[in-house]
Write a structure and sequence with these properties.
six-stranded mixed sheet; 9 helices; alpha/beta; Metallo-beta-lactamase, Chain A; binds zinc ion
Length: 255
Amino acid sequence: MPIEIVTIPCLTDNYAYIIHDKLSNKTTLVDAPDFDPIKKQLDERKWGLDNILITHHHDDHIAGVSNLIEQYNPIVFGAESDKNRLPKLDVGLLDRDKFSASNLIFKCIEVSGHTIGHVAFYCPSEEIVFTGDSLMSLGCGRIFEGTPEQMFRSLNQLKNLPDETIIYSGHEYATQNAKFASTIDPYNPDLVNRAKKIMENVYLQIPNVGSTLIEEKKTNPFLRADQKEIRAVLGLENSSELEVFTVLRKMKDNF
Ligand SMILES: [Zn+2]
């Protein structure tokens, strides 16, 4: 494969991602929770840093940006609509904008809900998407600034990507997410298997990110508000999908 993706654990439970194109020797970072662990990975591979893509304004996704700019002088991409809360952008992106980084074409998808102005970065040729704190392994981000409706809409946009798309999200929350999902969808055999695999990965210290969209569609309760088994557990057989999603998100907040 001409590209390599490096998953970098940062801070307590954050992930940054490096996307390196071997042909052009160009390197792109998605989110910068911290400077040192990212620099270490770049140095070990003797890579520079050409681009930084920022998913949203929270400190645990941007704290390393200023030091990285000083050291590597990359081009910084982020949501134009949130530019006042982000580090200084070289390229402000609108929903659906396409741009080139690491010799790849990415599409910016607005996925507000966790924050307003949150974006995901989708690369169709590699079938990968970087979702930050929107869609996560077996979960989704907490709704801090948007409405449940916005988050629901954002997740549906991601749900419409091809099934094989690999989801890279901003945190290692899979253990808690699996515990919650198991209370909502206890008889789902795919979820039972996935929860087991997550526990194994945690034991082996393997990140639980890089799931496929089809896996999420089969097991992530936040993408399954249309499923009658989940509706039955919640006693919401006749509610809309948005109502079911809203209840699920509230339950998870208090889980
Ligand atoms: Zn966040």
